[in-house]
Model the fold of this input.
Amino acid sequence: MTQSKLPAGLHPDTLAIRAAAERSQYGENSEALYLTSGYVQPTAEAAARRFAGEEEGFTYGRYGNPTVSSFEQRLASMEGTEAAMSTASGMSAILMMCMGLLQSGDHVVCSQSMFGSTIKLIGSDLAKFGVLSTFVPQTDVDAWRAAVRPNTKLLFAETPTNPLTEVCDIAALADIAHKAGALLAVDNCFATPALQRPVEMGADIIMHSGTKFLDGQGRVMAGALCASQQMVTEKFLPILKSGGMTLAPFNAWVVLKGLETLGIRMKAQSAQALALAEWLEHHPAVDRVFYPGLQSHPQHRLAMAQQSRLGGAVLSFSVKAADPEAARKRAFHVLDSMQVLSLATNLGDTKTMCAHPASTSHGRMTEAQRQAAGIGQGLVRVAVGLEHIEDIKTDLARGLDTLS
Done:
């Protein structure tokens, strides 16, 4: 669908508000929500050309929608890519990427610190179809280089990672991938284009779970891949048409409007997260805090260079404990003592959400996989929202202050 005409060089914050499909004949200022599964064609010949991809035009709801197109155009503009393809969820975006780019016998190199469902999908589910994978330490560039094989087609990193906020050197991984004739995909869910644009550092594909910060209020599921127009058209669109990972128009409209406040939310929530991380570092019941904005973070300097000098809105901390069983009990005590914050596994909301990764988001991983990824039983993840910072501290202190 034709994009609205905007001058070149606009800031991403402006693109987040203005980039979209052209207005309809009614001249709406807020982008329209088109709820339809089918489209009336002007002629049979035009319908044939559109279904064959020879002419621009909508044909069927599974293949495209004006509202969905607006979301895709806005996100691509913000990420600095030529195009984007939306999906029903972040995980369906990863599945689309793998199905569009890989076949039996191909090899993928991934961070061992990635989201648990990503590790399960690539390491187990796709392995049944002959896709090979190697998982390496997120921050060890030499390990990434050593893992590359002649049949390596894709390097896939998440930065910062969930939940330990490890940061990878995007430019270094892009160099490794391109020298091997492979592609680099980056999960930009935590930083978002408001803080980080991986394509500017050499990444080929940017993956998003729009369910998180892009929506910003925990309302709908959504996902997307940002890449070149050729890759979107030739690799991802055919998978969408046959696989049906289609984003619903209503969900696209919600995330489209969420993008308009992404920049101010990410700045405010990053400031909140830094204040909370600094407070947690000095709490006697806390063993360690994981947050890129802290100078104690191993990749602090790299994170500040890649992420517009902001640490993002997600942090994790581990409670002090003598053994894993005690750590789990103490972490559960902190979570069960909360009276204001949400015990929930989503993130990116204006409401602060806390979770126990080892038993939830990373619960399907083996214990060996969790240990390799550094996911201990005493780890608590906090997705910081917009409540007053003192109320967030007080609610966590209910549990932390009463650990015996």
